[in-house]
Amino acid sequence: MTTSPDHVDSREDLAGFVRALYRSHTFEGHSWENADLQSFLEALAAWIDDADGWYRNVGRNLPANGDWSFFALALRAATTYE
Question: Which residues form the DUF7660 domain (predicted)?
Fold first, then answer.
Protein backbone atom coordinates (compact mmCIF):
# COMPACT_ATOMS: atom_id res chain seq x y z
CA MET A 1 0.00 0.00 0.00
CA THR A 2 1.51 3.33 -1.06
CA THR A 3 1.37 6.73 0.57
CA SER A 4 3.12 8.54 -2.29
CA PRO A 5 1.28 9.57 -5.44
CA ASP A 6 4.55 9.02 -7.35
CA HIS A 7 4.26 5.29 -6.67
CA VAL A 8 0.70 4.78 -7.89
CA ASP A 9 1.11 2.56 -10.93
CA SER A 10 -2.02 0.42 -10.81
CA ARG A 11 -5.66 0.42 -9.82
CA GLU A 12 -4.71 -1.41 -6.63
CA ASP A 13 -2.10 1.24 -5.83
CA LEU A 14 -4.70 3.97 -6.35
CA ALA A 15 -7.15 2.24 -4.00
CA GLY A 16 -4.38 1.88 -1.42
CA PHE A 17 -3.46 5.53 -1.79
CA VAL A 18 -7.07 6.60 -1.24
CA ARG A 19 -7.22 4.38 1.85
CA ALA A 20 -4.03 6.03 3.13
CA LEU A 21 -5.66 9.45 2.63
CA TYR A 22 -8.69 8.22 4.54
CA ARG A 23 -6.50 7.08 7.45
CA SER A 24 -4.62 10.37 7.37
CA HIS A 25 -7.88 12.28 7.55
CA THR A 26 -9.15 10.07 10.37
CA PHE A 27 -6.09 10.73 12.53
CA GLU A 28 -4.82 14.08 11.25
CA GLY A 29 -7.77 15.64 9.44
CA HIS A 30 -7.79 18.58 11.84
CA SER A 31 -4.45 19.63 10.33
CA TRP A 32 -5.63 19.43 6.70
CA GLU A 33 -6.27 22.79 5.07
CA ASN A 34 -9.26 21.25 3.25
CA ALA A 35 -10.61 18.93 5.92
CA ASP A 36 -14.32 19.02 5.02
CA LEU A 37 -15.72 17.46 1.85
CA GLN A 38 -16.84 20.74 0.30
CA SER A 39 -13.44 22.43 0.55
CA PHE A 40 -11.64 19.18 -0.39
CA LEU A 41 -13.63 18.81 -3.63
CA GLU A 42 -13.21 22.52 -4.46
CA ALA A 43 -9.46 22.26 -3.93
CA LEU A 44 -9.38 19.07 -6.01
CA ALA A 45 -11.11 20.83 -8.91
CA ALA A 46 -8.80 23.85 -8.61
CA TRP A 47 -5.69 21.63 -8.59
CA ILE A 48 -6.93 19.70 -11.63
CA ASP A 49 -7.48 23.00 -13.45
CA ASP A 50 -3.91 24.08 -12.65
CA ALA A 51 -2.20 20.69 -12.88
CA ASP A 52 -0.20 21.67 -15.95
CA GLY A 53 1.27 24.60 -13.98
CA TRP A 54 2.13 22.38 -11.02
CA TYR A 55 3.84 19.83 -13.25
CA ARG A 56 5.75 22.62 -15.04
CA ASN A 57 6.86 24.11 -11.69
CA VAL A 58 8.32 20.80 -10.54
CA GLY A 59 10.01 20.12 -13.90
CA ARG A 60 7.72 17.33 -15.03
CA ASN A 61 5.24 16.83 -17.88
CA LEU A 62 1.53 16.44 -17.29
CA PRO A 63 0.70 12.82 -18.24
CA ALA A 64 -0.92 13.07 -21.67
CA ASN A 65 -2.63 9.70 -21.44
CA GLY A 66 -4.10 9.84 -17.94
CA ASP A 67 -7.37 7.95 -17.70
CA TRP A 68 -9.44 10.94 -16.68
CA SER A 69 -12.75 9.15 -17.20
CA PHE A 70 -11.78 6.36 -14.78
CA PHE A 71 -11.05 8.90 -12.04
CA ALA A 72 -14.29 10.80 -12.79
CA LEU A 73 -16.31 7.58 -12.67
CA ALA A 74 -14.67 6.61 -9.38
CA LEU A 75 -15.53 9.98 -7.83
CA ARG A 76 -19.14 9.77 -8.99
CA ALA A 77 -19.51 6.15 -7.92
CA ALA A 78 -18.33 7.03 -4.41
CA THR A 79 -21.48 9.12 -3.97
CA THR A 80 -23.64 5.98 -3.94
CA TYR A 81 -21.38 2.89 -3.66
CA GLU A 82 -21.64 1.01 -0.38
Answer: 10-82
